[in-house]
Each structure stands twice: as C-alpha cells, then as structure tokens.
Design brief:
0% strand
Length: 242
C-alpha cells in the first residue's frame, strides 16, 4: 500500500469519512478537558496573576498558525511535483483555518501583552513577522479567488506559499534571531529549564493536542467540501457542452 493512494479523491473521501467522527470526538474532548483544566484548576502566576491563563489559547493557536502554513507548503510542493489535485485542494482548505488561528494568536497576544508590557502592540520581531504571515494568508486566499483556472491558481498559490514560508519560519524563531524585543522565549522547549512550570505545562499540552486535532478535523472537512465543489463544477461544465 502506498501513501499516494490517498491522493485519489475517491480513496480520500472514503478514508476521511471514516476518520472524521473519531477526530471530531477527540478534538472536542481534548479542548474541553484542556481549557477547563487550564482556566479553572491551575493557580495564578506569581508575576502575571490570572493573565497567564491566556497561554491556553495563545500558545496553541500561534503554534497552529505556523504549522498550518507548513502543512500548506508540503501540500503545495506535492502538487508542484506530483500534480495530485487533492493536495492542492487540501492546501486551499487549510488557508482560512490557518488565518483564523493567526487572528486568535494576534488578539490573545494583545490581550496578554497589554497588562504585561503596558501596550497592545509593539513592533517586536516575532509580532511583526506574525502580522506579515497573516497578510500572506490573506494574499493566498485572495489569489485562489482571483484566478478562474484551478490548476493555474494552484501553481501560483504554491509559489506564494514557498515565499511566505520565510515569515512562518521567522514567526517561530524570531526571538532566537534577534535578542531585542518584548516577546518572551518559547513556552515549550526541549530544554526543561525554558519550559513553563509543570502545573501549567500539562494542561497546555492537552490544549495543544486539542488544537492539532481540531485543525486536522477542519482541514479534512473543508477538503471534502472542495472536492465536492470541484466535482460539481465538472458536472456543470459537461452539461453546458452537452
């Protein structure tokens, strides 16, 4: 069995139909458990008070905003190399979801930053690159909408996705590239000394799992919708030619 079998629309529809109920249930379970645990059963931070609990929305959404673009990049490269339409449609399906996560990260970051920094926004390296990433999401979505031929749209958006990946990388590692800036370092790290305290760390992991599962669930749903829309367009084109 080859992984490329799932690039077949029929195979993809069958597999995703089986997986979606399980993914939906797991994502809801993890999100409810993680958010309730984090917001109601963890103490206030000794420096940040109850404001620290924004971490359970801000960190997972920021991680998924970047990883959604990475997923789009991989799907776009598969399209450019192997010309599998499901991969192009999956990249298109992921873009509005990634934009939503980016917006959540920017808003929650502002809500967290105001009491900590005394300002809603700063032209910090990570914040600035994250804002540019949001603009790339908007440009990607607009480019898909602006081009009628789907293959041409997939080609051009794939190139845009590769360019935007620079800012996805900067959004993740800007703090390491530039020492200046208000934004703190990573909340989760392979270095245990840089991680948040365990009392916050464990519910945060559950929330991250919930956001990952939610992203996969929504991408599968939207990709199925894109496939159906493509089939409908093909049927309408046949009727016009008949």
């Amino acid at each position: 069995m080859s992984i490329w079998e799932y690039a077949n629309p029929k195979k993809f529809m069958q597999t995703s139909a089986w997986a979606l109920p399980w993914l939906t249930g797991l994502s809801v379970l993890c999100l409810i458990a993680g958010l309730i645990w984090g917001f109601f059963f963890t103490p206030d931070d000794y420096k940040q008070g109850s404001t620290v609990k924004i971490i359970y929305l801000h960190v997972p959404s920021a991680m998924m905003a970047i990883n959604a673009w990475v997923m789009m990049l991989v799907a776009s490269l598969i399209w450019l190399v192997r010309r599998h339409h499901v991969s192009a449609l999956a990249a298109r399906a992921a873009a509005p979801i990634g934009l939503t996560f980016t917006a959540i990260a920017l808003v929650t970051g502002a809500l967290w930053g105001q009491p900590m920094w005394g300002t809603w926004w700063a032209w910090d390296p990570r914040l600035t690159s994250f804002l540019i990433l949001a603009l790339f999401y908007l440009g990607y979505i607009a480019l898909w909408q602006a081009i009628d031929d789907p293959d041409t749209a997939a080609d051009l958006t794939s190139v845009l996705c590769m360019v935007g990946s620079v800012f996805a990388l900067l959004s993740r590692y800007a703090v390491n590239f530039w020492n200046q800036g208000l934004h703190q370092g990573a909340s989760l790290s392979l270095d245990k000394e840089e991680n948040v305290s365990d009392v916050f760390w464990f519910p945060l992991l559950v929330c991250i799992a919930g956001f990952v599962l939610l992203f996969v669930t929504l991408v599968l749903m939207r990709t199925r919708t894109e496939i159906r829309a493509r089939r409908l367009q093909a049927l309408l084109a046949r009727e016009r030619l008949a």
